[in-house]
């Protein structure tokens, strides 16, 4: 998640593709047994991971996903994406004592892939972090990717399905709990330089554990990781970066762009845009004061515009929270919610001086991190000779998720677009893209 998207995650418990909540103790025994990637008899594979509460989540590499919950008879039944709507599929799992572990999904039998996993504790920037290296079968040299967090507070070791899915494609994967999450030490922060140094430590540990198998190395980063990964690669170069739904603008401009996108997608013109930017300016003043001042001006503007037709469509990335929450609550909770965020951090000096090949994958309908200015900046960098490729999924929201729009205008995620996983896989394995990847619009 981006720096400011974390507010939505904490306040309304939104789920994003690389995130999720830590496991509930009620299903820990079930999850420990069944979590893994399974090769099905029809030649496809499916990943089973922990879901919300007492549920599981399945994912396929074509982007489809669903939630598994027990029915009254104890059978696992599936619902589409995050909609809660039944999709007609069922799953069953063998007894934990069975080896290799087996399952049946939608009537097709599968067996868990035997991936090698090495758990470790390593020194980050002044803290001890928990990590895990997942390796495919065999002993040959393989690409090695370190997964960098977004702004979520959940445990990557528990919730990141990519650690298994990439490994099943012949890639070594290192996941770790960022400081202050999961079983890692330290205090949670969104200080990008500190997080970049933790990522560098994770890369060193990954290479140490992989040893002679280490081939090309790089980072895969989502959302806020789009600020952290380039910084880590500038300090200690790697062979590639894969950045999903990240930004090449500051966290403060992220909210401003999200407000502008709200107005554009709802068809409002320049006069309304000017009013909306006044709201953005008032929100920025509160953020830049670390939530200490600026509330009176925001309230005055709110009273002035709240009855106008456009105002109900204004969401932004963090402004919606400031508009909907009492000032005293914001004063109390705000500094913790955005702990360490460098609001005016400009990523361009790093990107302008970064020679590491990069793939940026963005969502055309990302209302939390609108991609327009980021794409313009990346295009200029590419024209200046930086090794950058971009891909846009036109109908994807934050997390590169397709979605349905509910009656109240809110969105509910359904799946990743077809081609999204394959694109990341190909870039990690080969350092280039070939052919088409679903609906993705690729840069030349």
The best one-word shape is globular
Poorly predicted ranges (pLDDT <50, ≥5 residues)? 8-27
What is the CATH topology classification name of the domain at 16-112? Lipocalin
Under the CATH scheme, which architecture of the domain at 16-112 would be assigned? Beta Barrel
CA(first)-CA(last) distance: 27 Å
Helix content: 25-40%
* CATH class (first level) name of the domain at 16-112: Mainly Beta
Mean pLDDT over all positions: 92
Order of adjacent strands in the largest pleated sheet: 9-10-12-11-13-14-15-16-19
Q: Over all CA atoms, what is the radius of gyration?
A: 22 Å
Overall strand count: 19
Structural class: alpha+beta
Q: Strand count, sense and closure of the main sheet?
A: 9 strands, mixed
Number of helices: 14
Q: Indicate the proportion of strand residues.
A: 15-25%
């Amino acid at each position: 998640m981006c720096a400011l998207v974390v507010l939505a995650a904490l306040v309304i418990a939104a789920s994003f593709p690389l995130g999720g909540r830590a496991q509930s103790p009620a299903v820990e025994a079930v999850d420990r047994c069944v979590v893994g990637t399974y090769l099905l008899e029809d030649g496809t594979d499916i990943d089973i991971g922990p879901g919300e509460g007492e549920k599981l989540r399945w994912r396929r590499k074509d982007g489809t996903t669903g939630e598994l919950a027990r029915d009254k008879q104890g059978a696992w039944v599936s619902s589409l994406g995050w909609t809660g709507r039944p999709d007609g599929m069922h799953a069953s799992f063998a007894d934990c004592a069975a080896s290799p572990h087996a399952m049946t999904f939608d009537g097709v039998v599968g067996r868990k892939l035997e991936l090698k996993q090495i758990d470790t504790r390593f020194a980050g920037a002044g803290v001890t972090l928990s990590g895990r290296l997942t390796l495919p079968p065999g002993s040959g040299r393989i690409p090695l990717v370190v997964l960098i967090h977004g702004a979520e507070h959940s445990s990557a070791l528990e919730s990141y399905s990519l650690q298994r899915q990439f490994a099943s494609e012949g890639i070594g994967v290192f996941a770790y709990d960022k400081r202050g999450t999961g079983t890692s030490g330290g205090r949670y922060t969104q200080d990008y330089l500190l997080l970049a140094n933790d990522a560098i430590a994770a890369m060193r540990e990954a290479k140490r554990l992989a040893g002679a198998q280490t081939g090309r190395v790089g980072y895969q980063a989502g959302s806020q990781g789009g600020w952290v990964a380039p910084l880590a690669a500038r300090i200690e170069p790697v062979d590639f970066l894969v950045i999903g739904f990240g930004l090449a603008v500051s966290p403060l401009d992220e909210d401003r762009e999200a407000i502008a996108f709200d107005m554009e997608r709802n068809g409002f013109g320049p006069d309304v845009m000017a009013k909306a930017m006044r709201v953005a300016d008032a929100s920025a003043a509160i953020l830049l004061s670390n939530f200490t001042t600026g509330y009176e001006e925001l309230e005055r503007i709110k009273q002035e515009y709240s009855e106008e037709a456009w105002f109900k469509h204004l969401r932004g990335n963090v402004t919606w929270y400031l508009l909907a929450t009492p000032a005293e609550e914001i004063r109390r909770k705000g500094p913790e919610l955005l702990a360490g965020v460098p609001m005016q951090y400009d990523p361009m000096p790093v990107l302008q001086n970064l020679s590491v090949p990069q793939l940026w994958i963005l969502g055309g309908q990302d209302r939390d991190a609108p991609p327009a200015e980021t794409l313009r900046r990346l295009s200029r960098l590419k024209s200046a000779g930086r090794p950058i490729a971009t891909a846009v999924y036109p109908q994807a929201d934050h997390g590169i998720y397709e979605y349905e729009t509910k009656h109240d205008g809110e969105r509910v995620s359904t799946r990743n677009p077809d081609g999204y996983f394959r694109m990341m896989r190909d870039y990690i394995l080969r350092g280039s893209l070939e052919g088409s990847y679903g609906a993705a619009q690729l840069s030349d």
